[in-house]
Amino acid sequence: MSTYTAINLVKRPSGSIGPELFEVVEKTVPQLEDGQFLVKQTHMSLDPAMLGWMSPDTKSYIPPVELGDVMRSSGVGKVVESRNPDFAEGDQVMGMFGWQEYALSDGKGVNKVDSNLDPEMVLSVFALPGLTATQGLYGEGDPKPGETLVVSGAAGSVGSIVGQLAKADGLKVIGVVGSDEKADWIVNELGFDGAINYKTDDIGAKLNELAKDGIDLYFENTGGPIQHRVFERMNAHGRIVVCGMISDYTAKQPSAGPNWMNIIRKRLTIKGFTMPDHRHKTPQLLEKITPYVQKGQIKYRSHILEGLESAMTGLNLFFTGENKGKLIVKL
Amino acid sequence: MSTYTAINLVKRPSGSIGPELFEVVEKTVPQLEDGQFLVKQTHMSLDPAMLGWMSPDTKSYIPPVELGDVMRSSGVGKVVESRNPDFAEGDQVMGMFGWQEYALSDGKGVNKVDSNLDPEMVLSVFALPGLTATQGLYGEGDPKPGETLVVSGAAGSVGSIVGQLAKADGLKVIGVVGSDEKADWIVNELGFDGAINYKTDDIGAKLNELAKDGIDLYFENTGGPIQHRVFERMNAHGRIVVCGMISDYTAKQPSAGPNWMNIIRKRLTIKGFTMPDHRHKTPQLLEKITPYVQKGQIKYRSHILEGLESAMTGLNLFFTGENKGKLIVKL
Description:
Two copies of one chain form a homodimer.
Chain A: E1 3-9, E2 22-28, E3 37-45, H1 49-54, E4 75-82, E5 92-95, E6 102-105, E7 111-113, H2 119-126, H3 128-140, E8 148-152, H4 157-168, E9 172-177, H5 180-189, E10 194-197, H6 203-210, E11 215-220, H7 225-231, E12 234-242, H8 261-265, E13 269-272, H9 282-294, E14 302-306, H10 311-314, H11 317-320, E15 326-330
Parallel strand pairs in A: 8-9, 8-11, 9-10, 11-12, 12-13, 14-15
Antiparallel strand pairs in A: 1-2, 3-4, 3-6, 3-15, 4-5, 5-7
């Protein structure tokens, strides 16, 4: 019997995230029952949301990964054996396959993907990042042409798509990033109107310069000091979409939020969202984003890690901000 | 020529609010032109919103009262002379008459009120407090029967109406107040399900006891430590309506808000609002609240101050929490 490699979560994170939280195991490739099929995963997505899935404190979100279970993740693969009439050998599929080389499925939550589509593009645009950007911007943010949008984590997988969608819709788009290289990429490659390097720029002064008319829409992916500087500059009736707080995910002491007085003075609306609530809208979200992709308005770049075990250290790149583009593990 | 007394704002508040900010002046009762009428004010409303009107930092809200101008306020009075066909001598009217015994009007923004209605009831229920409560609860908060609502400033003019409306709609209602007397009033007179005295109770422990199933809707009138304790206990898809932050109005150092991580985890919506944005909805808001009043579901109590000049010290009662009920100056 042939075996394959899987990685289980065996410890909850407290501070850093690395190989000490995981266990690499060998498993036996299972026999198929009727209705099942076997997927050989080719590309595995690493997403900031996974940091939440590893923490115990998520009772009102989706259940955390149980200790001893395969680490949860989405990925793309090929069907290599099937006893399910809807999935044939050779089909390219997308689903929550986890950190493992092979995954057994009954088809639930698995979608077929055109075999001509590059798996990197699937995971970078049509999977969680694109769905999240689309739901967050249109489902929560109510963007209007002519408005000014600021997005943090702007070179990240979600932020880069949010900014490009908004730019295509006629908003002024300012991105906050953590390196000059990323600033250059979002302005010169993606067409953002401006970029702020939060590590080196005076954030407030730069916002004053780039967002002269104030900020109508803030798409929050990171938290940190940016949050306060943007909050102070929100326009009346502004909206804030809270999608991620990467800077606080593993913080022992959560950072203080802004005082609420401005929520009244500016009549702000602040909305948090997570994608599991909107999974049923996947077809509509894909329908919304597809024309932008077809018109070439959504560029992406992926940061490829090689081999299953690279995932264990790869997650840390979200904290250091060293990833350039969508993090994907190639198996 | 006869004269009357008016009070002008002559200084911006910084910390406390008292007679040092105002100037009492004598004015000549003006001659009417065509289309004008003269109102003798009988009752004047003191509202927390006035603290905002006195501050210079309200550029995105409504304009502040100019220094040297009569202090802004709403009130009820009788038409004593009229050259306006829509307003007759003897009519009872409501409007923004300011801190003065007489007000000249062309009818703009002035509404006739049934002469049988007690002016105290008009100012306590059908004026700013009732309109604010109705817009905040229904226009922003989306209350649902069976949900748990917490309201701060629960014995205040807005909070007490919010709680009674929600209670009539089948929500569980918990009020936060600053004295045992107020706690007793909201539970035993208004029918709230529970009360917390934020000055003497362990707020967190008491919330755990009273809101066993968590909190779905928080109506924020005060800010302060209550905000954090409630925020931590919000349920998934909870809503927070931010109406007032009395504890921060004159603070030199604004208090820290809660960390935003829970906004994502719980998918919260936080909305600020102010009534000038909704002035055009006054007829609909009155239509909404009237049936509750007619069914006897809205009780109120007014705290009457005697004489125009009592307004200058009266505003401080909002900070000390010593007012019992809607603050009204009787002229």
